[in-house]
């Protein structure tokens, strides 16, 4: 068990440092390909950091030999949005509060709040649909996978066309593998981003494996490991990115990354689960879905009223504690 804990800590540290290279690289990729700052977070960064959890779901539901393994995939598809909607958003608030230079700054401009509110509304529609499908049985359910894939394609199209908020201006730091090159070529930005993603992916798999070892030691079933522990591991890149970007004063990228990752979680892994499993949710998964919706509804209402600040955002971590407490009654 000592070796497992050491590997857990080493993999977490590796994820953090590789995320430093990833966020720096993906910003340059967006800059080089004329992608807006918001789309860099919601599409480019989110797609990269959502790979670990998508792979977990894909392997579990497509290649899983028994129902227990497929349940892990379904749990990961529901657990990911839960962690993002509670822990990840709270981390942005906590980090913003602890960075001294942010004390007199506003978390988001009104235009960015309106855009983030639209993202939450889009997510809620898809999330409610996927939870609803998990409550009923009918033969044509797998065809709904196409709906989720098309929804994500429409989301990507909208984000790529949207313009940045002119009030949100930040600097672009030198590319880490070319620190003295003021205008590095596209291939260097792509190389750094790709290598960082590979390290993030390998480290995340190692992190998930160690949690899989710790789970039985704690007396947790495979479904509980998938719902409680695996999402924390697979969403670690988004959480690390949030810490790094907020420290740099780029909270718009941090929140865009989380919001974009949530849209991926609401569509791609869900499509895989609906296509390759019966997609029926047990009580624990339904409870997790309810907490996720409560958190997103609360965030949406604050954004609509232009009332979101770092202190209130940091309180969204309490929803995850509510989820843990409620597991004793389901």
Keywords:
76% helix, mainly alpha, 330 residues
Termini gap: 30 Å
Low-confidence stretches: none
Q: Give the strand tally.
A: 0
* Number of helical regions: 13
**Hey, roughly how much beta strand do the residues contain?**
under 5%
Q: Average pLDDT, to the nearest integer? A: 83
Structural class: mainly alpha
Principal-axes geometry comes out as globular
Helix content: over 70%
Oligomeric state: single chain
**Biggest sheet statistics:** none
Tell me the radius of gyration. Answer: 19 Å
Following the backbone from N to C, one meets helices and strands in this order, namely: HHHHHHHHHHHHH
Concise structural overview:
The chain is mainly α. 76% of the residues lie in helices and 0% in strands.
